[in-house]
Amino acid sequence: MMAKFDYFVVFAEMRTGSNFLETNLNAFDGIQCHGEAFNPHFIGYPNAHAILGVTQGQREIDPMHLVKTIRDKSDGIGGFRYFHDHDPRILDNLLADKRCAKIILTRNPIESYISWKIAQATGQWKLTNVKNAKSEVVSFDEGEFENHLAALQEFQVQLLNSLQKSGQTAFYVAYEDLQDVDVMNGLAAFLGADARLDGLDKTLKKQNPAPISDKVDNFPQMESALARLDRFNLTRTPNFEPRRGAMAPQFAAAANSPLLYMPVRGGPEAAVVAWLKSLDGDNVRTGMNQKDIRQWKRKHVGHRTFTVLRHPVARAHSAFCEHILGYGDTTFGEIRKTLKQMFNVPLPKETPPTENYDATAHRAAFIGFLEFLKANIAGQTSIRVDPAWATQTAVVQGFANFCSPDMVIREDRIKTDLAYLAFSVGRDDAPDFDTNCDPYRGKLQSIYDAEIEKLAADVYQRDYMTFGFGSWK
Questions:
Q1: DSSP annotation string for 33-63
Q2: pLDDT tens digits, one per residue of 226-260
Q3: Is 130's pLDDT higher than 50?
Q4: N or C: which end of the chain has fewer CB within 10 A?
Q5: Exposed/middle/buried for residue 156 (C-beta within 10 Å: 0-12, 13-18, 19+)
């Protein structure tokens, strides 16, 4: 039967026990690990000059050549250790290659951080004889540790997402597992090796076995700093929305000026496009694909891309009036029907409503819609999260999958900011912007109160947090 893997990579970090793991991998017949093969400062090991005949200079010119050499010329299944700051040119290829076995080694990040600080202070990165052990008490630096933790977490998320998307799985090893011979034998089986170990290699000794409290000279400050860190991400606003594309065909480019508008549905789209027309003439370009937009950007050096955000209360209300009440769009009939039947939203019978639909009825219906939105955006309904009421955070993140706007304008500052935007591309004659661009503002003013604000803030807490919105009034 054909072997499952051709080679392997150990994803690890400094001071996670990767040297000890490598030593035990190399104790198996049929497994050969070549150190930090893609460390930017050396090849394999600090004093080595080549791996399987490939020099560091050759690796710099063609890193994939070394990957292929390790795959094809190792004694058995070959591999290497890879840290988050190693040569990034090979990472995507490694993650995409299903013939490459992935081993992910982790350690409590505060332990790895303190171990790293001690190794820096002593200059001792490996220990083979306890008589030569060096020890040092170090200081905990909160900012340094937060950067250390952020880098580790970002890399681990990248690995996880890549493996999920390609349908792969990795062999996870914790620092504590390194002392378990059965785990090491299981890892050998994962790699397809037949050999098994009776015991672990004891050449390398654990450095600094004392408790952390004895290794840090400002331990109380460290405890306090760690208590402030949101280790479990408790303050994160949950996000169950589907990821969004960039919606490039909706982008609007001015006829002559290098301005590209990236509209957020439910905002002042028509008014901004009208402003672009009054700036340069009616020939605003829309319907472009991503290739068209890239070409437009190349031709318009110094271009500015921008989007406009509307307050979440006003935007939800606009979507409600436009699409659900049918003042401007009658294509949401099925959703409207489901809102009435399944979610008990007290919608009027007619679309759009007749004269009998007063402010009291409008307020009740809008509150029902907001309650539906809370469940919808949280992924608890079968109805799509329409772009007209998706969070603006998700929409802007969708833009970033293609290109990010370099200016994000709030509607309450739109007149000033559009004038500045035009001036930044050499237009000091820009027309005024008509700020009366929300046709449903009067209806909202007649029903708005603290309850509506609170409901909207519950629905759009990501937008309030991300973009700093206060109350609508």
A1: E-SBTT-TTSBBBTT--EETTEEHHHHHH-H
A2: 887 766 666 666 777 777 777 888 999 999 999 99
A3: no
A4: N
A5: middle
User: Is residue 21 within 8 Å of 120, Cβ to Cβ?
Assistant: no
Pick from 241, 6, 13: nearest CA to 102:
6
Pair 63, 90: CB distance under 8 Å: yes
Cβ count within 10 A of residue 49 = 11
* Kind plus residue range of the DSSP H or E element containing 337: helix 333-342
CA distance 17 to 174: 9
DSSP assignment of 205-223 equals: --S--S-GGGTBTTHHHHH
Largest interatomic CA distance in the chain = 92
Alpha carbon distance 358, 430 (integer Å): 40
Check: CB of residue 177 under 8 Å from CB of residue 183: yes
Three-state secondary structure call for residue 350? coil
Select from 440, 197, 184 the least CA-distant residue to 317: 440
- Note the pLDDT tens digit of each residue in 365-385: 999 999 999 998 988 887 888
Q: Sort 410 into a burial class: Cβ within 10 Å, 0-12 / 13-18 / 19+.
A: middle
- Whether the CB-CB separation of 172 and 12 falls below 8 Å is answered with no
Sign of CA dihedral 44, 46, 48, 54: positive
The whole-angstrom separation of Cα 109 and Cα 300 is: 47
- How long is the chain? 473
R_g of the chain, CA atoms, integer Å: 30
DSSP secondary-structure letter at 138? B
Pairing of strands 7-11, 77-82: parallel
Q: What is the DSSP string of 445-471?
A: HHH--HHHHHHHHHHTHHHHHHH----
